[in-house]
Amino acid sequence: MLKTFPLGGVHPSECKLSRQSAIRYMPVPEVVTIPLAQHIGAPALPIVKKGDRVVVGQLIGRSETFVSSLIHSSVSGVVTTVDMFEGPQGRRQMGVTIKVEGDEWSPEIDRSPEVVRECTLSPSEILKKITEAGIVGMGGATFPTHVKLSIPPGKTAEYLIINGVECEPYLTADHRVMLERGEEVLIGVELLARCLGVRRTYIGVENNKPDAIEHLRKLASKFDNIRVVPLKVQYPQGGEKQLIAAITGREVPSGALPVDVGCVVQNVGTALAVYEAVQKNKPLIDRVVTVTGQGMVSPANFMVRIGTSMREVVEFAGGMPADGAKVVCGGPMMGRAVSNLEAPITKGASGLLIFDRKDALRKPEGSCIKCGKCVEVCPMGLEPYLLNVLSRKHRWEECEAAAAADCIECGSCSYICPANIALLDYIRWGKSEVMKAIRARNKR
Residue 427 sits in which domain range? Predict the structure, then answer.
């Protein structure tokens, strides 16, 4: 019997329209805007100014804060502005805009196609390279990878779990990475395991990707202590806590982290970025993005330079369909609607999903009928109907008591609600207020 997590979950239509689309490299754009906050934690501070010339891979933003990430130029050219710009949801943030001139790369980056497996670096040297490359979680969470790999005193990592689940409908970027860059991914996994000092590594892949499972299993036979684990298809299995439960049977307690139960979880895209950083000296300057939707003529996967505008990516994929009405960055369950297509692709942008007018419209919200379906499907064992009411009434202390901070924002409650109540929207609001209060208390 295939493994899965024990509590809740839903089964939305997969709609993996681009699963057969091999990764294509998008041309270098004429202009990029590279945000200085592409990660959880403190934003980086610019170390370049208007008029500076930069090359691909050059450091342009840094922070002295531990929970942060370095930012590198994805292109070569001249810095035109270091200023605020409008992000994908309309919020203004700091970024570096570069007018592209040619495609000159930093000389230490190895651009040869040769796959390099041998590595003589120590765990601390591997960690240093990962830190210097500005790698973050590529599954969408964007937590700085070097922070996850820095195990706190008194804790031990026993398992490294690699997330190849890609449970969101429509998205296929990770699927294609496993098929086309599988050997490099496994070398990256081996480097992560060495950095952590773990001897047991599992790659979780849902059973709707049999080609990826077979391919990785063949490759893994040449590696020690890497096992590919097929999983039952169930959303949101890509959540860290759900994946840990599915593979190890361990439950991460409320308020705890994966390392508290001896686990560290990394995405397959992150493993590829680790390989490129350690073995090729390449910082995180590009990523695979799925551009998809029912109205798209050719849903596809593209390797895109960080900072390229979303509009250019959509145009390269064939342009906005005639009935295109909404663009979502990410998948339909956890992604966010984009209000500004001039906003750039970031390290955490796994896909651009285009809805037509019919699918873009929200159905009218009705009254809660107390059916309990939202409770049944919540993978964290929460009471979404209650958190929704408490958030609407601004009862933040009660939200905290009802464990709003444990919500993983998977959207299963909103998906299953027969009354079309925007449960996730209000729970996200409540969770954000609870987290603000917790941070304020911790500063005292």
Answer: 373-443
**pLDDT higher than threshold 80 for residue 444:** no
Q: Is residue 343 part of a domain?
A: yes
Q: Angle of helix 210-220 relative to helix 182-196, nearest 10 degrees? A: 60
Q: Are residues 341 and 431 in the same domain?
A: no
pLDDT tens track for 139-148: 988 999 999 9
Residues 125 and 182 in one domain: yes
For residues 332-367, one letter each, b for 16 or more C-beta atoms within 10 angstroms of the residue's C-beta and e for the rest, the string is: bbbbeebebbebbbbbbbbbbbbbbeeeeeeeeeee
Q: Could you read off the pLDDT of 367-409 as tens digits, one per residue?
A: 999 999 999 999 999 999 999 999 999 999 999 999 999 999 9
Specify whether 159 is located in the same domain as 210.
yes
Inter-residue contact 310 to 341 (CB < 8 Å): yes
Enclosing H/E stretch for 100:
strand 92-100
The CA distances from residue 389 to 384, 386, 430, in Å, are: 9, 5, 10
Helix (H, G, I), strand (E, B) or coil at 328: strand
Tell whether 344 and 203 lie within a shared domain. Answer: yes
| Domain identity same for 323 and 203 | yes
Q: Would 46 be classed as within a structural domain?
A: no
CA distance 28 to 287: 13
Whether 173 is in a domain gets the answer: yes
Per-residue pLDDT tens for 9-37?
Answer: 999 999 999 999 999 999 999 999 999 99
Among residues 361, 381, 400, which one ends one of the domains?
A: 361
Residues in a beta bridge with 335 = none
Do the Cβ atoms of 181 and 288 come closer than 8 Å?
no
Q: How far is CA 427 from the centre of its chain?
A: 21
